[in-house]
Write the structure tokens for this entry.
Amino acid sequence: MAGYHQDMYRYAAWLSRDPAIAQDVVQEALLRAWKSLDKLREARKIIDASGRDIRLEIDGGVKVDNIREIKEAGADTFVAGSAVFGAASDSDPNTYDSVIKAFRAELAKAGS
């Protein structure tokens, strides 16, 4: 997630026109994201401890550049509607297949 810091900061600075506010906004956003992953890890621990076969689904915000981190935090089912259908490109006639292939490649890199 830290890799997004500079892009997020530039965007927040552009919106707010205030470097201090931009830094606060970025820090808050990154903190919320980390807390969400912590909640996901905790949910996975509870599920695993139960001994039941329960799927842990994430619906929203799943993208090619974060799906590996989400899987490593414990999710095993992903909903990525806008990441797939919003990726249409006239230059790639196989856009949806290309995006799904990129998702699968990232998932293959994930540790357990």
Notes: The chain has a mean pLDDT of 84. The radius of gyration is 17 Å.
